[in-house]
């Protein structure tokens, strides 16, 4: 199908990448990266303001990534019936709407309303990640699909950095630790202080909503390729139930799905507790200073993603790269668990240069391991692995409450070991 200078192949891939359209979609990767980074800030803030446990504070990630799990299959159905563009526009609208809900949640002064608006926002973000993640894979020739996924995902840490900056400048405005400011306050004074601190969450999310509305308009007025498999005459596109059954029978895809679930769960739980670990090891440090370490980690993550993109472009195979990176991840986490003084902090920072290829490479290779007619649902299943970001932080929070925050990093270490086993098996099969 010829469309605006490029040709869509029968399998849904384009013969070349329309870079202007690709960049607009890629910017969305940065926006949900901003939201994910702000989650880490909220975990640190809400634990102190609401005086809650590590498990309770991790519910922020559960609300966010739990929505991803629920919305992935419905999003694939929207894509099948309508188009990728329809799902993307609807996802942007819900993402922006959830961001705007932070205003009434901040006025309510309790934890539950925040979890509810995070959930609504994440429904939109989940629709975007599912649709955009698969769409960028299809927007060009199949040989470069992993590279396109890496390029789009490289924009993600730029959004992470922006999110931490917003948190540092607009949420953590004091150089004094929140718990120290709250000490000795009467019940009435404490309530007033909590409300004042929660007001700081409004502006960052209003900024996100404003950017999303602009992108919504820019994408809505353009014509985008369908990138959907052409159905032969006399044939019908497989239904959702048929696709799910076919995917569940594909052992390689199911094993890859579980590996991706463990990989993203491990990555997100590291970010969830990085600020908490820095503050735990440095009791006199304020939350605003703790966010500096998170920002450094995202800068390192961005550099790591850029390096990976260059390595893949030069022909380094995905599984060879992942086998080395994952081994080093496990070694770094052992340093976090058992290192003295501030060695765990340095290990947590260093590990970020290794996280770059895990999610996009597993996503692209897993989607590529299915028949093209099942691509939309394969993308939905791949996005559902982000529920690992809802489950792993809860497990780590529980381990932290029972043992120690430092030892709780055994949880992501186990996740990376599972991914490493998957990668080594598939690397051997490729040789």
CATH class: Mainly Alpha
- Could you state the order of secondary-structure elements as H and E? EEHHHHHHHHHHHHHHHHHHH
Strand content: under 5%
**CATH topology, what is it called?**
Growth Hormone, Chain: A
Name the CATH superfamily assignment: MFS general substrate transporter like domains
Number of helices: 19
Q: Main beta sheet, described?
A: 2 strands, antiparallel
Which strand order do you get reading across the main beta sheet? 1-2
Oligomerization category of the chains in this entry: single chain
CATH architecture descriptor: Up-down Bundle
Helix fraction by DSSP (H/I, runs of at least 4): over 70%
Task: Compute the separation of the termini in Å.
Answer: 36 Å
Mean pLDDT: 88
Backbone shape: globular
Structural class: mainly alpha
Rg (CA only): 21 Å
Number of domains: 1
Low-confidence stretches at least 5 residues in length (pLDDT < 50)? none
Secondary-structure topology with pairs:
Elements: E1 2-3, E2 6-7, H1 19-49, H2 54-57, H3 59-81, H4 84-100, H5 102-108, H6 111-138, H7 145-171, H8 178-182, H9 187-199, H10 202-220, H11 240-249, H12 251-281, H13 287-313, H14 318-338, H15 343-350, H16 358-368, H17 375-384, H18 388-402, H19 410-430
Antiparallel strand pairs: 1-2
Describe what you observe in this structure.
The chain has a single domain, classed as MFS general substrate transporter like domains (Growth Hormone, Chain: A). The mean pLDDT is 88. It is built from 19 helices and two strands. It has helices at 19-49, 54-57, 59-81, 84-100, 102-108, 111-138, 145-171, 178-182, 187-199, 202-220, 240-249, 251-281, 287-313, 318-338, 343-350, 358-368, 375-384, 388-402, 410-430, and strands spanning 2-3, 6-7. The longest helix has 31 residues, at 19-49.
């Amino acid at each position: 199908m010829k469309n605006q200078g490029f040709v869509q192949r029968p399998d849904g891939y384009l013969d070349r990448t329309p870079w202007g359209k690709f960049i607009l979609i890629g910017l969305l990767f940065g926006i949900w990266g901003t939201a994910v980074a702000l989650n880490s800030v909220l975990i640190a803030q809400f634990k102190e303001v609401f005086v809650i446990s590590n498990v309770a504070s991790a519910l922020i990630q559960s609300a966010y990534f739990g929505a991803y799990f629920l919305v992935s299959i419905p999003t694939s159905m929207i894509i099948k019936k309508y188009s990728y563009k329809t799902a993307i526009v609807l996802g942007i609208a819900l993402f922006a709407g959830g961001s705007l809900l932070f205003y009434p949640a901040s006025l309510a002064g309790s934890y539950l309303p925040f979890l509810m608006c995070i959930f609504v926002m994440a429904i939109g973000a989940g629709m975007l990640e599912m649709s955009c993640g698969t769409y960028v894979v299809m927007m060009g020739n199949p040989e470069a699909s992993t590279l396109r996924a890496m390029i789009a995902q490289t924009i993600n840490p730029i959004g992470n950095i922006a999110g931490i900056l917003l948190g540092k400048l607009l949420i953590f405005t004091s150089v004094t630790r929140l718990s120290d400011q709250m000490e000795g306050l009467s019940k009435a004074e404490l309530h007033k202080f909590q409300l004042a601190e929660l007001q700081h969450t409004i502006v960052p999310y209003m900024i996100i909503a404003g950017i999303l509305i602009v992108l919504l308009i820019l994408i809505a007025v353009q014509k985008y390729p369908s990138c959907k498999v052409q159905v032969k005459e006399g044939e019908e596109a497989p239904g959702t139930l048929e696709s799910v059954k076919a995917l569940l029978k594909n052992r390689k895809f199911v094993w890859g799905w579980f590996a991706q679930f463990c990989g993203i769960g491990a990555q997100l739980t590291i970010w969830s507790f990085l600020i908490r670990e820095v503050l735990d090891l440095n009791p006199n440090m304020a939350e605003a200073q703790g966010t500096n370490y998170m920002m450094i980690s995202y800068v390192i993550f961005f550099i790591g993603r850029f390096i990976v993109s260059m390595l893949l472009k030069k022909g380094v195979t995905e599984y060879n790269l992942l086998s080395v990176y994952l081994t080093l991840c496990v070694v770094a986490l052992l340093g976090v668990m058992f290192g003295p003084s501030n060695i765990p902090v340095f290990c947590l920072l260093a590990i970020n240069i290794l996280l770059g290829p895990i999610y996009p490479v597993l996503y692209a290779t897993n989607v590529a391991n299915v028949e093209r007619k099942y691509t939309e649902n394969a993308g939905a299943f791949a996005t559902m692995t982000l529920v690992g970001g809802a489950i792993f932080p809860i497990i780590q929070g529980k381990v932290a409450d029972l043992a120690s925050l430092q030892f709780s990093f055994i949880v992501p270490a186990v996740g990376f070991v599972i991914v490493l086993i998957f990668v080594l098996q598939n690397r051997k099969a490729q040789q």
